[in-house]
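Journal club prep, notes for RB
We'll compare a predicted complex against what the paper describes. Inputs for the iron/sulfur cluster case:
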Amino acid sequence: MYAPMMPASDAAAAPLAAPSPLPSLAGLDREKLALALAAIGVGEREVKMRVNQLWHWIYLRGATDFAEMTNVSKHLRATLAEHYSLARPEIVVEQVSQDGTRKWLLRLPAETPGERPHEVEAVYIPERDRGTLCVSSQVGCTLNCSFCHTGTQRLVRNLTAAEIVAQVLVARDRLGDYPGRERAVGPGLPTEGERLVTNIVFMGMGEPLYAYESVAEAIEILSDGDGLGLGKRRITVSTSGVVPEIERLGREVGPMLAISLHAVRDELRDVLVPINKKYPLAELLEACRTYPAASNAKRITFEYVMLKGVNDSPADAKALVRLLKGVPAKINLIPFNPWPGTKYECSDWETIEKFSDIVFQAGYASPVRTPRGRDILAACGQLKSETEKLSARERLALRAMAAAAE
Ligand code: SF4
């Protein structure tokens, strides 16, 4: 059953940053902030100090208005407000699942005049002691994995680093996840720890290693200890297997790695994850064995979607264990989330348990991922498609309700 589409302001207490025609500084790295300051006349000797102030207010305090920046001079605050904003992408729809999972459909401002605005999703998955935000790295995807709904949406473009970081800011805004802010309350939210967003996974729309530059830059911003402070051990990049970029990611950036594996034989993986034709299993596993940031303490996660009668036999489970020998690995078995038009079905629970037992006996703990947010269609690409089915009138009504509630 689908949860009702909710106007953004119904689900959490934090204020929304108003959409703005001015360019936003939210999501920029230090270099781009310095350029923005220089462009409004801030002198060379002052720039570094001002960048540090902006960094603190944007990323540590979650400022949505320059007026909040009390240690910045009144004159500079006024000049900043004249030329820039701190706007986030517009929230088109916010959904809250009964289990606390939250999902946002976000509209990105056009990059060039006349460009149609594009939409991406971010999903927040809370647990008792952590909250994981799944972010998108591209609008659509080129890779056409046959079990994936996003793969049916053509690639429009890579996100910028700022657009990736802005997804994290939106989630923290909506959850009140900044010092001194009123935290969101509701079932399923973490009850331990100070932060609500503690982990980031690049598992939303798109192949992150095809948006390498943006993803790498975004990770540097997210992990900066003076700002959002999400350490690289808490950031996971999930790839379908863009082998040449895996080593580079480990060497240059060093986040945790996840592989969308889904099959243990090349003939089957060629169908499920077609990039396998370019980078077959042997090459992919070699890249994992030598991933610079991996160790027993920093295992690589292998995701394996359970498809009835396709990849779920005991022989597949045993082959999976053999394939991962020598790789510091965790295995995540994912019950398939069906979407309209798919030819696949989810494996029976009994089959999943048998598969999981074989993997467990081989030394991999708790490998079945509990399905989360099923009532709000948590599988990637689904919310976007659902909103596309809404009539123009329904969309207008949603927006009007959201505006009225502000
Ligand atoms: S699974 Fe990932 S890489 Fe494959 S089509 Fe879907 S979004 Fe793209």
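Talking point for the session: The CA atoms of residues 86 and 191 lie 30 Å apart.
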